[in-house]
Amino acid sequence: MIPQRIFEATLLDLLWPVRAYLDDPEVSEILINGVDCIYVERRGKLAKVPDVFPHLRALLAALRNIAQYSGKFVDEERPILEGRLPDGSRIAAVLPPIARNGPSVAIRRFFQETLTVERLLKFGSFTPEVSQVLEVLVGAKLNVVVAGGTSSGKTSMLNALSSFIPEHERVIVIEDSAELQLQRAHVVQLEARAADAKGRGQVSIRDLFKTTLRMRPDRIVIGELRGGEALDLIQAMTSGHGGCLTTLHATYPRDVLTRLETMAMMSDVNLPLPALRAQIASAINIVVQVSRLRDGSRKVTHISEICGYSQEQQKYEIQDLFRREFHGLDAEKNVRSELLPTGYTPVCAELLLAAGYELPPALDQRNRERNGHALGN
């Protein structure tokens, strides 16, 4: 049997045309469109590079070895591959005949250095005022969803939020492919597994979630919601499992709720839509919306509170606690913006106080009004 370290070294050698980019800390994504077209993303911006694979056989050999390393199979009958590299980077590949112009590969870099709250503050993703609010919301065990588009910084934000979990709590993480680097000591990491070539051995996110509920979690973190497991999480949130964290793909906070509806209906439980919506509104407390802006920067654009569901108007009640305001481009074509409080005091204020947290000044409208009145006098 080939030793693991030798297998890993050989696999990386097969990727020699892009090896330099796998080692470059500024590269976040590598996109291979056939053997002779490679793009890399640096600081949110894509650029084509001159490197190429010498021939189709070389690229296919690399993909087959990656599949083997990930415990999967890829060929003409199974032309889609999702796996990871030895350094933890995530890879998705599509082979001919589905990919008409040759194998198409996307490698999402895995960075050993976790993006901390301090680093995100330095990048301008959010402000110290927002950081203080997020610390209270997470610490008080509100259920938080981080939402955004592809490559918008959802995973980085979730990693950062984990630093606000109290040290004494037991955290269980469930992922399709291990990416999260939670900044806590007592963490149990579980990873789903696809079926083998004969359809055996599959362990789904839903399977792991059901087991997690019996493992005494203080917090449950799901790397990304994609399907029917959304209903399991919603029901857990409404039955005493507070402080859950997860991510999903959505463009705006309101879209998060409709996406959750859709995913929950993918489960094998037939729940009336009004009852489902009421459960979603009760389960989700906060949406942290992130976005990749035109200049490639990744920013928090909204922090929104889910206040309930109106049966009469048949719509979710949402209020923004913070909202990013945009002011065009500067001389260097960078987006000018600022993340500002909206002035609302959240409905969850009593929950925060009951959990032993003081209401941050940015969320305490009454305190601001008192201070403003005193200054006016």
Write the CATH fold name of the largest domain.
Rossmann fold
Structural class: alpha/beta
Beta-strand content estimate: 25-35%
Shape: globular
Q: Could you give the order of strands across the largest sheet? A: 9-8-10-11-7-12-13-14-15
Number of helices: 12
Give the SSE order as H and E letters. Answer: HHEEEHEEEHHEHEEHEHEHHEEEEHH
Word description of this protein:
The protein is an alpha/beta fold and 377 residues long. It folds into two domains: 4-108, Beta-Lactamase (2-Layer Sandwich); 117-376, 3-Layer(aba) Sandwich (Rossmann fold), CATH 3.40.50.300. Helix content is 31%, strand content 26%. The chain has helices spanning 4-14, 19-22, 56-69, 117-123, 128-139, 154-162, 205-212, 229-237, 253-264, 273-283, 349-354, 365-376, and strands at 27-33, 38-42, 45-49, 80-84, 90-94, 104-108, 144-148, 171-175, 187-191, 219-222, 245-249, 286-292, 298-310, 315-329, 335-341. Strands 9-8-10-11-7-12-13-14-15 form a nine-stranded mixed sheet, with helices on both faces. Strands 3-2-1-6-5-4 form a six-stranded antiparallel sheet, with helices on one face. Strand 14 and strand 15 form a beta hairpin. Helix 1 packs antiparallel against helix 3 and helix 9 crosses helix 10. It is globular. The model is unreliable at 373-377 (pLDDT under 50).
